[in-house]
Design goal:
By secondary structure, the protein is α+β, with helices and mostly antiparallel strands. Helices cover 45% and strands 24% of the residues. The protein starts with a helix and ends in a 7-residue tail after the last strand.
């Protein structure tokens, strides 16, 4: 009888463990996957790329299960004339793979791509870059961007083994202080694939203007709480391997927006 009871108890534990594992996996699968894509055009071909996205590509993305979140172009430098940056949302990494396969096989897309190249010649200077990302636990919910705002894409490369500490500083201090000084956060992500998955944090801030961004960062840097948090976090060495990268962006006319 004792053996039977032990066997029954073991069966219950195994069933519970299996159910818990399945539930955890489903919860993980339920988290969206985000894709940051950057297109670089041949000189003078950005309007042709914009036309293709505006008239066809975005609609076909949605048709195949890829949610359009935001589309930007740089405000400054030569990239302003050649670059399109956007974020897609996928139900999962597997869903992204299936959606892209269906999109590329779509007869309408093939026709659009062929007609676009025939009318405008070679549009892209090189293959697009794609970074699959997971939202951090301290990121705000990812929604639509706000019209008539300036956005800033910032990329941090953590020192070896310091990405968790960098995320802790953002979670406990930085995000709140950004908001205090008029820099709302659009979203925070870490890449899913190595080597960036081990050392990179990407995020977007929202500004009223370039001038307001400069004023906000000046006030942020002078904040006593930030100074203390920064100093404390650096006791065992710098959390970053190099200076953060910053790129100011504007929403394009065909981007979803609030």
């Amino acid at each position: 009888m004792l053996v039977l009871r032990s066997a029954a108890l073991l069966a219950v534990c195994l069933t519970w463990g299996l159910w818990t594992a399945v539930s955890t996996a489903r919860a993980a699968d339920a988290e969206p996957v985000y894709e940051l894509r950057v297109y670089t055009c041949e000189p003078g071909k950005l309007p042709a790329l914009e036309e293709r996205f505006r008239d066809h590509t975005m609609r076909l993305f949605e048709k195949h299960g890829m949610k359009n979140l935001a589309y930007w172009e740089p405000l400054d430098g030569p990239e302003a004339e050649t670059t399109l940056i956007y974020i897609l949302e996928h139900a999962s990494r597997d869903a992204a793979t299936k959606s892209w396969a269906a999109f590329r096989a779509d007869p309408e897309w093939k026709q659009v791509a062929a007609a676009s190249e025939q009318n405008h010649g070679k549009i892209l200077a090189k293959p697009p870059t794609a970074t699959f990302m997971a939202k951090t636990d301290y990121s705000p919910a990812i929604g639509l961007p706000v019209a008539d705002k300036v956005y800033e894409l910032r990329t941090y490369t953590a020192a070896e083994g310091k990405l968790d500490a960098l995320n802790t500083r953002f979670r406990d201090y930085t995000v709140r202080l950004f908001d205090k000084y008029g820099m709302p956060s659009y979203g925070y992500w870490v890449p899913l694939d190595p080597p960036q998955s081990g050392d990179t944090l990407l995020y977007f801030l929202e500004h009223t203007s370039r001038d307001s961004a400069a004023a906000s960062f000046k006030a942020f840097a002078a904040d006593p709480e930030w100074k203390q948090a920064f100093t404390e976090s650096q006791k065992n060495g710098s959390l970053t391997a190099k200076k953060p990268e910053s790129q100011f962006l504007k929403l394009v006319d065909f981007s979803p927006r609030k």
